[in-house]
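User: I've been trying to design a sequence by hand for this structure and keep getting stuck. Would you show me what you'd pick, starting by listing the structure so we're on the same page?

Assistant: Good idea, let's start from the same input. This is the structure you sent:
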């Protein structure tokens, strides 16, 4: 009987422990909300006057909710919480031009609903440092050196932020992989709207970037990034891919830039289905470091000065199935670019369909459709900007045209539109053929040769006259001596 009672009690204890364990596992820790308002008269565990005090008092998964106001703080988020502002434009965190305004060094942090401004020099509005799975969304950042800065941080979401007013870089990723940069609006940056350095496999999608002094989106030494659906305009360069490869640039709109898409020392990139218009250079593979083995296909390239510009030994790229229309130059090749395969493109309504500054050694073009171009294939062998068939000397870049057909090129013709004149020796505005005094020495040209001969002969004439005078004097002296001798002889005879 006692044994039965003991077993029964043991069973009851085990069931109780199981229930406690189940309750403990299945019941989540209740997240608290800590309220922040700088006008609170008193503070307690859940009501604080400063944001940093609220963060310090928070625990895992808590929410720190900040009421409207301007909070002059540099805050550190070192735990997994949500930091939420009441209104994006009325809840401000101001760093006072010192350090990072918001510094995050914990995973799973959510920041939304703030205006964040006033970082220190080369510091950030928000910095994520060595973190992952954070979300920075719905904020307004301005007047920071870097607005959002990721250092060694992966798998974070940066989305729906407004970034403006002369930052150095709007969103900057360094050594940060697998992040999602989506639907941000970035204006008036200096170096780049979105910049990646040694950062791979990031997604940059549906952002609007404008009025950047350098590059709207700049992918530097970063590979396997996916750049999709972005609109980049009114910048020096729309999208720059530099010293890297295996990036996908697809479905973007680049307009009103100096260069729409720039590949600089870039290899094995996919440039496709982009709309590129009203730039000086639509797509350019250029600058002192060649770009190779890129695939450029199915892009709509219109109303640029140069549609596709291959420069500086850019080679072995494939350019196909593009619509290249209404540009000054459809495809422009220069500076030893070679071995590029250009085929199955529609090249229409351009001033020059194909323009090259050197004579091709291979046939690189096939199956292209040419329609309504003012000039078809043109070569400019000496690179002086004048095609060979219009160039007075196609092998001399200093010699261009001879407008008056007098056999003297315009840059060496003092009267390029007067076939009767080409030289003006004395620069008096009268051509030598019509000028009675070509050298401007006041002596008419008709008298210059006789006068020159006369002047040349003067020394000889003077010598001749001197010699003649001396001979005459000698003869007179001889005659005088003879007369004197005869007189002496006569006296002797007497």
């Amino acid at each position: 009987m006692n044994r039965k009672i003991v077993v029964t009690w043991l069973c009851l204890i085990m069931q109780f422990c199981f229930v406690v364990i189940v309750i403990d596992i299945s019941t989540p820790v209740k997240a608290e909300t800590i309220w922040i308002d700088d006008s609170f008269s008193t503070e307690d565990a859940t009501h604080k006057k400063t944001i940093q005090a609220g963060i310090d008092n928070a625990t895992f998964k808590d929410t720190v909710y900040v009421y409207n106001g301007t909070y002059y703080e540099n805050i550190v988020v070192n735990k997994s919480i949500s930091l939420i502002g009441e209104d994006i434009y009325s809840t401000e965190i101001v760093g006072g031009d010192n350090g990072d305004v918001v510094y995050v060094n914990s995973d799973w942090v959510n920041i939304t609903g703030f205006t964040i401004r006033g970082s220190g020099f080369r510091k950030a509005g928000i910095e994520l440092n060595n973190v992952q799975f954070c979300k920075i969304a719905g904020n307004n950042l301005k007047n920071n050196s870097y607005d959002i800065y990721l250092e060694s941080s992966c798998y974070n979401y940066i989305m729906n932020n407004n970034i403006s007013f002369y930052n150095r870089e709007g969103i900057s990723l360094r050594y940060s992989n697998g992040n999602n940069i989506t639907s941000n609006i970035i204006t008036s940056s200096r170096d780049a709207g979105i910049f990646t350095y040694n950062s791979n496999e990031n997604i940059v999608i549906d952002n609007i970037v404008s009025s950047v002094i350098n590059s709207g989106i700049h992918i530097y030494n970063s590979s396997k990034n996916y750049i999709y659906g972005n609109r980049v305009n009114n910048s020096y360069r729309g999208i720059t891919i530099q010293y890297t490869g295996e990036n996908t640039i697809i479905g973007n709109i680049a307009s009103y830039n100096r260069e729409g898409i720039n590949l600089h020392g870039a290899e094995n990139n996919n440039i496709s289905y982009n709309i590129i218009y009203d730039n000086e250079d639509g797509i350019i593979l250029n600058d002192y470091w060649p770009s190779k083995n890129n695939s450029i296909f199915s892009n709509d390239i219109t109303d640029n000065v140069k549609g596709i510009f291959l420069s500086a030994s850019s080679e072995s790229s494939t350019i196909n199935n593009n619509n290249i229309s209404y540009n000054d130059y459809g495809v422009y090749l220069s500076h030893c670019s070679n071995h590029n395969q250009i085929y199955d493109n529609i090249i229409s309504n351009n001033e020059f369909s194909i323009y090259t500054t050197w004579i091709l050694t291979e046939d690189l073009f096939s199956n292209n459709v040419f329609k309504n171009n003012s000039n078809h294939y043109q070569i400019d062998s000496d690179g002086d900007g004048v095609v060979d068939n219009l160039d007075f000397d196609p092998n001399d870049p200093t010699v261009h045209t001879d407008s008056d057909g007098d056999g003297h090129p315009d840059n060496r013709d003092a009267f390029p539109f007067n076939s009767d004149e080409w030289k003006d020796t004395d620069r008096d505005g009268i051509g030598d053929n019509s000028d009675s005094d070509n050298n401007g020495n006041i002596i008419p040209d008709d008298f210059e040769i006789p006068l020159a001969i006369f002047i040349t002969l003067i020394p000889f004439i003077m010598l001749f006259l001197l010699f003649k005078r001396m001979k005459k004097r000698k003869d007179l002296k001889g005659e005088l001596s003879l007369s004197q001798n005869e007189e002496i002889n006569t006296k002797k005879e007497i």
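That's my pick for every position. To get oriented when you compare it with your attempt: The first helix runs from residue 2 to 26. The chain has three helices and 44 strands.
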